[in-house]
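ok so i was messing around last nite and threw this chain in just to see what happens. nothing serious, just curious
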Amino acid sequence: MKVILGIDIGTSSVKAMLLDAEKGVIAVHAKSYEVDIPQTGFAQQNPQMWWDALLEVFQQLKAETPDAYRNIKGIGFSGQMHGLVLVDKEGEVLRPAIIWLDQRSQKQMREIEEVLNQEQMGELLRNRISCGFAFPSLLWVKEEEPDLFARTAAVLCPKDYLRLKITGKSGAEVVDASSTGMFAIAKRDWAWDLLEQFDLPKEIFPDAAESGEIAGYVTEEAARGTGLPAGIPVIYGAGDQPAQSIGNGVTKEGKLISNIGTGGQISAFSKTPVYDKQLRTNTFCHAVKEAYTIFGATLCAGMSMNWAKNKVLCVDNYEQVNAWAGSVNPGSDGLIYLPYLSGERTPHLNPKAKGMFFGMTLGHENGHFLRAVMEGVTYSLKDCLLLLKQMGVDAPMIIASGGGAASPLWLQIQADILDREVCVCNEKEQACLGACILAGTSIGIFQSLEEGCERFVKMNEKIYVPNPVNREIYEERFGVYRELYERTKDLM
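result:
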């Protein structure tokens, strides 16, 4: 028995999958947690919380499938991108991780923009730096917490910290490194001259390896704490978006993915680091060597639904969400939602953007608000799709991914608004699966990523086709959605 362990450290939970290289997925377990919002504009998480949650997941996997757990041959990682984890020379965390939702570094953003204009950002970084990226977050720590900054021995991304706990070695890889805002994308290396300009010490940035390279091995100490066999090879892994791409079978050009997780993206695989000249999209290194991922991103996708479900309407479960939302007409009888609860990236690049329900009447009930959230999030993904199309990136079918893909109603809404056929992978935890396939290829269990994908990435037979009547309704409402932002952005 050859088993691969794939770990995905997300914003809302940590998940782990055991994949039998012959028979497929054996087990998946997850542990949920929250984002800490200590004050408006801040978003952080304690890395120790991630590790404690992962230990619980390991215990569940070991108890449920002890034979498989003993036969793990390799470990892969996927993780939330952009976040900043600082550790000292003993590998101990210095402060809570500043994650991608954070907006505290607006002053530092202005300082960066005084040094780098839009053209320079594009040439060097292929991206506009945003609040929540590790670069401005690191400058914030340097200015606001200089004592902690002085003790920093390594700058890590979230999954890098968990890999450090297992292997005892700090490290970086090109996908997450390129999402920090401090990485020369085309060179696949840190932007050393830029870091020097901002007086950031070179020694705190680990060398960036390719995602599939072996980062280290399970240490004896980690084996005692996790129950994993010591000596298992551990690969560097990848940021969640490219890992999810592999888990959806996208390892070449010509396919699009619509992801509704905590955040949301419309993404594509690319052989070259093309980018939007106005820097409204992101271009990062892919986990596939010498390839890139291009996507537009909306910050509050699934998080919008969690907010509406848990904090506003206090709905018990997602079955009720789908039942209420499904009872409402397409277009939510005129109710429109802007999902800008934590600012927005594509296409507005506005950390001060605000969320909104517009068009409320006495006739609107819970179901209208829930459906409007689904539609508003999908409108924001349509903004992303239209930008990619302007860049020459398009496809007739979209692979839906993330938690939003678990709702047949939301899948049909995506087909209608995005005006594309939508399909779904049978395996719901695509990031974990991608981490497994990447690790399995790296240690020689699979001859290639394509072989791993061919074995384990299977699409559901159900295809969601755009409804012409709904499509017409949504096209009109999408115009209103876009106009709402333009007319209120100054008030925001």
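not much to say yet. The chain is about 40% helix and 20% strand.
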